[in-house]
Design brief:
The protein is built from 15 helices and no strands.
Length: 428
């Protein structure tokens, strides 16, 4: 009786059915560990950015795009030849070893600035790759009926990981030293490996999704290494998701470049703590929203509003920055953007992939999540640099331009939400 009452409470609070509980909690733990590892290192990366000029940072973002393109192409070649159940854990083992390598290289490379720039680029590739692979895997487990109810709760695991992660450098960076954070993150990345096999078995045993209209997870994909790019450009639905990502990236770029300018006068350790503190506030807000509000927004108001709500808030946020271009207003905008992305926009966007083929999910999705994203970084970084360095525009005008882009972003979200509803033949 007590167990039944507890399950009823869980369903009313988070809309998780009893047969979905174990898989949902394991998925929650999976992404929690991934984001904890990433957010241990993210403040270190962001603190480095204030050491470089706008053109230098733009070149680093350009390098990130090209390395992302190479990484996705290699990933496409591997996933076409190796069973999916081996590829997913292999990705996390590979990145864990890469961070151990950076730790070792720091002791032998005499030029710290060169190594810092390499680390900045590599962590930027990792920051999208590990999440894209996770959501590709998760979207292959849950049905289109389950996704709107469960994805926001699962995404809250990312937010909790993003709270625990930055808390570690906030409290221990001074004592441990920033390079030792690499070893901690590398160890954490190995912890999700046993979860992957458990989730695969629960897909059939408890979730009851054996007959999902998708290919078998062990089926090998098309061997053309560019098939992910071809699948993407041939499908208007996927192209629209790519445009949605590009506009999201534009918001991120404009805020990021302006924030780093405000932090130039602080030393590296203080910057690390400020960035980590922003991460902490963002994720406290995101987890509350994800657990108690997102699924209800998706179910009650549908996908169009779910995807458009944060872009709409960004319009008003950028207008506030235009009127009052100061640090605390910009930080507030960053908090709203990132918390809204983690809690609402990101889960909504991942729901879009529950209705596509494995070819699109495992090969076109990384193209969108990584290459298009980092290509957007590159283009918008140089666009921002053009506006500021060449045209001399201040934050007031930058904010007005960003507000216009946010309006286009909102419209794209509404379009995608309607396409999802029409193709899925349900009103969420």
């Amino acid at each position: 009786m007590l167990k039944k009452k507890l399950l009823d409470i869980i369903y009313k609070a988070a809309r998780i059915k009893p047969n979905e509980l174990r898989a949902t909690l394991l998925s929650f733990g999976f992404v929690f560990l991934l984001m904890t590892a990433y957010f241990i290192l993210r403040p270190l990366r962001d603190a480095m950015s204030s050491d470089w000029s706008d053109p230098e940072l733009s070149w680093l973002w350009t390098s990130t795009f090209f390395f992302s393109f190479i990484a996705v192409t290699l990933y496409s070649a591997i996933i076409s030849r190796v069973k999916l159940k081996y590829v997913v854990p292999g990705v996390y083992i590979f990145f864990s070893l890469s961070f151990i390598s950076f730790y070792l290289l720091a002791a032998v490379i005499p030029d710290p600035d060169f190594l810092n720039k390499c680390f900045y680029v590599w962590l930027s590739v990792f920051s999208l790759f590990h999440v894209s692979v996770f959501w590709s895997f998760i979207s292959n487990l849950f049905s289109t009926e389950q996704a709107p109810r469960l994805f926001s709760f699962i995404a809250s695991g990312a937010s909790i990981g993003a709270i625990i992660g930055p808390a570690i450098p906030i409290m221990f960076a001074g004592d441990l030293g920033v390079m030792n954070l690499l070893l901690i993150a590398a160890g954490i990345l190995l912890l999700p490996i046993p979860i992957i096999n458990q989730l695969e078995s629960l897909k059939v045993a408890e979730l009851g999704n054996k007959n999902l209209n998708i290919e078998a997870p062990n089926k090998r994909l098309e061997k053309n290494i560019l098939s992910g790019f071809l699948t993407f450009i041939k499908d208007p639905y996927l192209v629209a998701i790519g445009v949605f990502i590009l506009l999201y990236v534009a918001m991120n770029t404009f805020i990021y470049f302006e924030l780093r300018k405000f932090l130039i006068d602080f030393d590296r350790d203080t910057r690390t703590q400020i960035w980590a503190s922003i991460d902490l506030v963002v994720n406290l807000l995101a987890i509350t929203t994800a657990i108690f509000a997102t699924s209800r927004i998706a179910i009650r108001f549908g996908m169009p509003l779910t995807l458009a709500i944060i872009p709409l808030l960004m319009i008003f946020g950028w207008m506030a920055v235009a009127v009052s271009p100061i640090l605390f207003v910009l930080i507030g905008l960053q908090v709203i953007r990132r918390a809204g992305n983690y809690a609402i926009t990101k889960p909504g966007r991942e729901m879009l992939f529950t209705m596509v083929s494995n070819e699109a999910r495992y090969k076109a999705k990384p193209v969108i999540d990584i290459v298009i994203y980092r290509g957007g970084d590159m283009v918008t970084a140089w666009f921002y640099t053009l506006l500021t360095a060449s045209f001399g525009l201040g934050l007031n005008i930058i904010a007005l331009i960003a507000a216009c882009l946010a309006a286009v972003w909102a419209s794209t979200g509404v379009y995608l939400g309607r396409k999802y509803n029409n193709q899925n033949d349900v009103v969420i």
